[in-house]
Amino acid sequence: MGFFDKVKTAFNRPAAAAAAAAAAAAAAEPACVSANSDDNTVRLIADCSEALGGRENIAGPVQVAMTRVRVEVLDPARVNRSQLKASGLLGHMVIGDTIVHLLAGDQATDLAKGLQS
Question: For the chain, which end, N or C, has fewer CB atoms within 10 Å of the first or last residue's CB respectively?
Fold first, then answer.
């Protein structure tokens, strides 16, 4: 589901169904993501972590700027760009040798928290 499909879905959902879905997601999700995350966000965190070479390949604190997540990796050879592309991200950019920007849209904050934990 693309970004604009998510926006359409969010506006078409009745308020009661949205509240029930948020409550169910909050009860079932790990502590590393916020209460408004869903299964797609949890799966995105796992896929991106694996594509970046595992959490042990992440060099330091992950930075987030609105819709982007900036990750520094220790070993750039372990980054699987085709797996990042298939993960559901809106896009990604490799800057220099060790910096990877993940374009995650409204999931950026939860993705950053998930990659740091």
Answer: N
pTM: 0.66
Residues ≥6 apart with Cβ < 8 Å to 4: none
**Residues ≥6 apart with Cβ < 8 Å to 101:** 68, 69, 70, 71, 92, 93, 94, 95
Instruction: List Cβ neighbours of 83 (8 Å cut-off, separation of 6 or more).
Output: 47, 50, 51
Per-10-residue mean pLDDT for the chain, 117 residues long?
60 50 44 59 93 92 92 94 92 92 93 89
| Domains of the chain, CATH where assigned | 3-116 (3.30.1360.60)
